[in-house]
UniProtKB/TrEMBL annotation:
Coiled coil: none annotated. Gene3D superfamilies: 3.40.50.450. InterPro entries: YspA (IPR010697). Pfam families: YpsA (PF06908). SUPFAM superfamilies: MCP/YpsA-like. It comes from the Bacteria. It comes from Yanshouia hominis. This is DUF1273 family protein.
Length: 169
């Protein structure tokens, strides 16, 4: 499927970003990506979901204007992923997909385990994982668990956000 794991970082995060995190998350994400780029990462893999995946993919595309060697891979769990989304969200997905360096679609249609397979594929193609994980028993926490078991470098943005917010109090 993909052969440059040592220079690849995947993303995992919730579809809903907490209101209190919205002002700080984009800057924190960009800073984390710049750290990874300085460490030799240049390929970033996103699952194409709403929320954090979309923010991460758009951040990579924004950085690519400055650093043209960056690559974005979108790994979709199934062909109709944006079906049922709002028109604006579906158009945003298509813009990201078209601007990506590569698009991998793991299945023709939705299945009970398609999200899990996508999450596992993201981890298997990566050496690092940037997460926005606040809740247990979610696909995001499952993906973080996969990443930790595989020994990926893990950058937990939710923890960094909470530390920043506590420092402001």
């Amino acid at each position: 499927m993909f052969s440059d794991r040592n220079h690849t970082c995947c993303f995992t995060g919730h579809r809903i970003i907490e209101e209190r995190h919205r002002p700080l998350l984009p800057g924190l994400l960009e800073a984390a990506l710049r750290e990874l780029i300085a460490d030799g990462y240049y390929t970033f893999a996103a699952g194409g979901a709403l929320g954090f995946d979309t923010l991460a993919a758009e951040t990579v595309l924004s950085l690519r204007r400055e650093l043209s060697h960056l690559r974005l891979i979108v790994v979709a769990p199934f062909a109709g992923q944006p079906d049922g989304w709002s028109r604006a969200d579906a158009l945003r997905y298509e813009r990201i997909r078209e601007a990506s360096s590569d698009f991998i679609c793991l299945g023709a249609s939705y299945t009970r385990d398609c999200m899990r397979r996508r999450n596992l594929a993201l981890v298997e193609m990566s050496a690092a994982c940037v997460s926005y994980c606040l809740h247990e028993r979610t696909g995001t926490s499952q993906t973080v668990g996969f990443a930790l078991r595989e020994g990926l470098v893990h950058i937990p943005l939710a923890g960094r956000l909470e530390s920043l917010l506590e420092a402001e109090i």
